[in-house]
Amino acid sequence: MKKILLIVFLFYAVASLQAQVSPAANNSTGGSATLSNGGYLAWSVGEPIIGTVSVSTGSTTVTITQGVLQTWPEAVKNLMLTLYLEGLFRGGSMAKAQNASGDEFLGDVADKITIELHDASAYSTLVYTASGIPLSTTGQANVTIPGRNYGSYYVTVKHRNSLETTTAAPVSFANGTVEYSFDVPSKVFGNNLKGVNESYCIYAGDVNGDGFINAADINSLSSAASVFSTGYITDDVNGDGIVDAMDLILTDNNAANFIAVKKP
Ligand SMILES: [Ca+2]
Ligand SMILES: [Ca+2]
Q: What pTM does this model have?
């Protein structure tokens, strides 16, 4: 009789132990969620309790009570712009910017530009800036933008001695790839492009970057030209590595037409 009682006791003891350890079967479970604000969460279940987090995904709420919370690599947007800079444009493609001894940049990079995203309803609000972006001789500039920027934005292009130029309207960043070409005046704010050899270019000659191509830029150029300045310098409007009459002519033509920045 004692043996039977012992066996029954052991049976219940083992069954009880199994019930206690059964949650371990969840060790390998986990999941992820895309949040309504564009962010992401990923988690695993079965690790020591580290806290409780509730997040809204828009239609549902995910509550994490156990496990490891980790960041998920943020998705990015591939912004692909096409544009020509008047100073470097040689008809069909652009020349590579020169310094005192040769090409300033390797490969097919003509020069580098800054790309800005501005708020669609409040242009003065700068949302994102990407500087030092290579612009190829064929006018391509590709840059990755953090995925949290999934709205619509004005896209502004800046260059060391070209006129700041902006898209005609906000551009949607809803998709993973965003393509935009500054190829016709109607796609640029204020139609502010210059026709050159059946193509359209961003105006050259805003040497001091103040949004106007005028006497101040010409004065700067004249000073540099008088001492034959050479190198990768802002006064070199046509990018050939020396400041001379060619740069003055380009800038003077635009100044004569009172060319200035146009933005929302
Ligand atoms: Ca200027
Ligand atoms: Ca030059």
A: 0.76
